[in-house]
Amino acid sequence: MTLPIIDAHHHLWDLGANRHPWLQEEPPIPFRYGDTRPLRRNYLPADFRRDSANQHVVASVYMEAEHDPADPLRETRWVHEVATREGMPNAMAGAAFLDRADAAEVIRAQAAMPLVRSLRHKPRGVARPEEYDPGHRIPGSLRCPAWRAGYRHLAESGLHFELQAPWWHLPDAVELARDVPGTLIILNHLGLPADRGRAGLAGWREAMARLSEAPNVRVKLSGCCVPGRRWTPELQAPVVLEAVRLFGAERCMVASNFPVDGLLASYDEVMGGMRAIIAGLPEAAQRRILHGTAAETYRIDA
Prior knowledge:
Order of helices and strands: EHHEHEHEHHEHEHEHEHH
Number of strands: 8
Largest sheet: 8 strands, parallel
CATH topology: TIM Barrel
Number of helices: 11
Distance between the termini: 17 Å
CATH superfamily: Metal-dependent hydrolases
Radius of gyration: 18 Å
CATH class: Alpha Beta
Structural class: alpha/beta
Mean pLDDT: 97
């Protein structure tokens, strides 16, 4: 418990100051963990500090929280105001909509903000692996020409890309990493291995193995809750340790995905569980996963 942590992916929100449609509109959106209504409350630095108090968190990275898409820069400005007042977060991932006409303008504006290190735009895709077609050109997907045109502006901005996509779309990410090698891709939430059946895990392992061959990809060990099941080291160790085996500790980092993962676990269960899962690795590897990879990726001096 003495090794320091950089939490590489968490959220904050003030529902009175900002608009987050997924948290404020009715009916609630379908969500992989179930009912999102318990999240409909402010989550501010005091709440994060209370949740993380036992885990020696020395720095953190804010992840865009699906703020009003009409004004993604408003969220970024708000996070900077919070950081100035509260001393956290230490870096952030902002939002940009890569298939929109203003993608290049928004990317440049985000890159000019001091805390922004990366951007996220969740690509469209199919809901189940059996629906995946490797030749697809779904509008707004990783293979969409308009989306890819926007993505190419990231390289000139120097920003990373936060990829959140289910594992059956990772072949698209392999092509993206190959075609635009100058942009670092940070895979969120282990490629969403929600199906822990034999076939589901086999498909996830194969997709992750192919992605691991791309040198410009890193992985967040986060967001791997299984609907209806409590977060435990026994449940999560197989996917966490397999990701570390494939990518190496130097390309893996822990993250809480709080408060979202708080629907199924406490902060101590998630981060204490991650510590337990990697406890058998050499201390240098543990330090890299808990702190070093995130510090390097997000340029945090902590």
